[in-house]
Amino acid sequence: MKKHYWALVAGVVAVAFAAIFIKKAEAPSIVIAAYRLAIAAVIIAPIALVKARKELKKLALKEYLLATCAGGFLALHFALWIASLRYTSVTSSVVLVTASPVFVAVASYLLFREKITRRILS
Fold first, then answer.
1. How far apart are alpha carbons 76 and 61 in whole angstroms?
2. Mean pLDDT of the 58-87 span
3. Cβ distance 74 to 40 under 8 Å?
4. Inter-helix orientation angle 61-84/29-51, to 10°
5. Where are the alpha helices (DSSP H) in the chain?
6. Sign of dihedral through CA atoms 27, 30, 31, 32?
């Protein structure tokens, strides 16, 4: 249990300082995003292959394609977010990124007439 706690603490610290380190980096945004995702993949892929091999084998082609599409959107998110750090402060960028659930809720209401429930607000 304790090692899981420390892994969680390390992850939170890494995420908390990411924007600051990215702002200080001189590499192009797309390179930073690619390295960030590649490093995560190198860490997570072996664990997934060991712990979830059976589940991965059961996935259909459509599910692999959806996962690849989701990964592409995650890569686009990181590339654009990292690029935003060149044009604004770390504070402004982080506030906008972490406020995205608010934007999604408002857009869902305006575009699809989905109700904003108490559960969504919590």
1. 23
2. 92
3. no
4. 140
5. 2-24, 29-51, 53-58, 61-84, 90-98, 100-112, 118-121
6. positive
